[in-house]
Amino acid sequence: MMKNNVVIANDHGAVEIKNTIIRHLVSRGFEVTDLGVADGESADYPDQALQACTEFNAAGDYAFGIVCCGTGIGISMAANKVDGIRCALPQNIFAARMAKEHNNANFLAFGGRIAYQDPVEGMLDAFIDADFEADSRHDRRVSKIMAIEKNSK
Length: 153
Ligand code: RB5
Known about the structure:
44% helix; Ribose 5-phosphate Isomerase B, Chain: A; five-stranded parallel beta sheet; alpha/beta; binds D-ribose; 5 strands
């Protein structure tokens, strides 16, 4: 059974998509901790990524986290620098499902200035409703990702 809380943070390039994401998560029964920013505020995406990932690691009981910036690129790069974070930047519904099934992502990133071919709600559903294929070659590969994090310090 998936936990029911999600942490989210964004920069000024992604306020609208953040609000869409929150509305959808709430409609699916999730509690959302929104670390901002709100409309009219400006922020540097690395600061927002660090806030969200720090909160995720400190609390230890979030289902997953979400970070959003103009493209999703910068904020996903920053998130993936934080210990323990596997942040996927899905292009579409298929990739969102794979992010869970194969990569066991614990964060998703989206771009507020990207014209996605699939609705963000559909990408969220695909991720939420998928299960990681544990005890498989994917387990081994995800362990190798985390070993890179540990061994490259
Ligand atoms: C901010 O203008 C923009 O650079 C940021 O939102 C994001 O697209 C970075 O990757």
